[in-house]
Amino acid sequence: MVAIKIVRGIKKYREAAMIEVDVLQQLVKHDKNASRCVQIRNWFDYRNHICIVFEKLGPSLYDFLRKNSYRSFPIDLVRELARQMLECIAFMHELRLIHTDLKPENILLVSPEYIEIPEYKDSSRTRKDASQFKRLPKSSAIKVIDFGSSTYGTKDYSYIVSTRHYRAPEVILGLGWSYPCDIWSIGCILVELCSGEALFQTHENLEHLAMMERVLGPLPHHMLKRADRHAEKYIRRGQRLNWPEGAASRESMNAVQKLPRLQNLVMQHVDHSAGDLIDLLQGLLKYDPANRLDAQEALRHPFFTRIHCRRS
Fold it and tell me: What is the signed CA dihedral for 271, 202, 62, 71, rounded to 10 degrees?
């Protein structure tokens, strides 16, 4: 059994598909120890559609969360998933490749098998389908997919990348982006796996930046000052974010206001190793890409290296 990705026979999609085939072949060529990137088996052109043949995998992390009523993953599973994502991105970055579209939909469990465990501690769930059982994957093995937007890190790029919720501040402010934009996306994904919900649920740039400030503190002045002409309107006299003055609506202000600080958000959901996770996330979600952890540094963080004990 294999999985086949069929790309519509439209010029720009075909071109993107051929870039993806090239990237996938590069990954296979250099991948001596299964780096967690999906493996291409073959590709062919069928009636002008590019068809890419892959190994068959399980559901995406997003689909698993959705079918699990958006219940969060246990912290020890989050640690394993985080380690594998960072190993994949470290491998890509060594090859000078930037993924640019990391999100739970693009991270697949290798196996579709899961177990159901009783869920005791939260009997007040309000979701209609709230059962007393929580699903857990039988295996924590994952593969990263969808290299159609990947690019070689030969310079700082300025065009918009990443799916909105996982988009780094330098991309929104038009400051140019490179490898660190992948690291920001991983930080956002880890918070989502711990909480069950996307960290920045927004579709608008100013609100998105205001949410970042609410969760992570003020954006640095030097980044606001350098914002490109498209992003200038989000900034007040080059000094601070134009918020709440520039808010589109009362609902938008409320959406920002209700967000907790990063530390509080993690503490609400994580029962042990919360301190190490918060410290790791603060390194992955540094505003200035120059100060953000790289993938290899992140893998050496105590969140992965320290022996963690559960509280009894």
Answer: 30
